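Researcher: Before we compare anything, I want clean individual predictions. No alignment, no superposition, just each chain on its own. First chain goes here; please echo the sequence and then give the structure tokens.
Model: Echoing the first chain and its structure:
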Amino acid sequence: MVAENLNTIKQSKEKIDLHAQLIETGVEHVLLELDNTLIGLEPVKTRIRETAALLLVEKAREKLGLIHETPTLHMSFSGNPGTGKTTVALRMAELLHKLGYVRKGHLVSVTRDDLVGQYIGHTAPKTKEVLKKAMGGVLFIDEAYYLYRPENERDYGQEAIEILLQVMENNRDDLVVILAGYKARMNTFFESNPGFRSRIAHHIEFPDYTSEELLEIGNKMLDQLNYSFTKSAEQAFLEYIDLRKAQAHFANARSIRNALDRARLRHANRLFKENKGPVGVQKLSTLEEYDIRESRVFTGGIDN
């Protein structure tokens, strides 16, 4: 019977222009925005494009009468801090909304503290309230492995996990859950929680940025604030990046933003020392080599 139906469908002359659907749904705009917003991360962008293609094809199959099934869309984003996981989650929520896989397309970002209570009877209402807010969109759980603390017998994280698993299974047409965190810890978390592992279909790894990509990110951040480097300052900042990456607690783009905030502090202080009279746009908006090299990173310290 299925084969006969398929033969009948195949005889249909109706066709769907997938590229036109890409544009009409607004998905192309989301993908272009992802490319323009995020520097590097090509493996991540490829996976997002592949996911978008699959969802568009499933919609086309539905329209043409072919057997179709809503793909499991729960995801895992693994990688170091500052690699764009939250930004990609926002774009994913937007993409899923434009394709009709979630009703609202909003992102609710939480951590363990938003889900797990400190006493008996506290966890279930906290978790259910978060899930209620996230329905129709995407729930992003950062550092998800902290939900599971087997070393603490009185920990209530397991209760939150059980509620999440139930909702992920029963409401997968109305909620997409993205778990995020460090790669090694996420792997251990999935080994300890087979329920999550069986419900996560897409595992996307976010690589660290190269030094050149981080410099480009820094320039982009400055441009958004109407600042810029001198040529020597830019070279000094590239050296800063290499040194800072070798230190503990480096958080990719997040650390770059923090470094630029401190460079702007030094820049402002220098302007007051060097100028007794009026200053113009050029001086107010240009970071010089001094503003970078005064960082303690160049003498082996941590820039904080």
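Researcher: Okay. Second chain, same rules.
Model: Second chain and its structure:
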Amino acid sequence: MKQIIFDFGDVFLDLNYEKAKTSFAALGFTEWTEEMKAINQQYEKGLVTENFFLTNLQQLSQPVALVNLDAVKTAWNSLLGPIPEYRIVFLEELVKKYPVYLLSNTDATHIHHVMSTYPKNLVDRFFACFTKVFYSFEMHQRKPDTEIYQTVLQQINAQSNETLFVDDKLENIQSAQQLGIHTWHLQVGKEDVVDLFQKFPQL
């Protein structure tokens, strides 16, 4: 293995789906529709603006007139939990052996929240570990489409059979495997990214 590509959410950054669900319920949201799922994916690809995305979310609140966009944005960001420092320490040791990359399905709202509200020292240490960071909203591509992995491999000048990809979503793992990329489907709550060397003792 010559390089490792990591997902972000629920691999390094904890995600709190229950907190997000509670936050949106407090705004009167009753369901996450297929239409909103599609708009979310468009936002993750950077194909619609933050205002467009948040306004469409706002339309799901009840009553709409009582919920402003700032409240919707706060609820959206409530999904994001901490980046535990022990994972950063792990990364700092790992990069002494391998170049590592970050590949995340994410949006401008979430990344701005991380960069502007998380402890600066921890954020700086975390991102300093990565040779390059790839965000779906900047690439206009997203997992599990195989084209996003092809783009990353091309940009880092890497071969698929010399690359390990770590992600918590099975569909993302399966699409990467189609290209011959080595994978670890990390089981959230049962495994932690710091278990990497136990999972792959050959590294």
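Researcher: What stands out in the second chain?
Model: DSSP finds eleven helices and five strands in the chain. Additionally, The longest helix spans residues 34-44.
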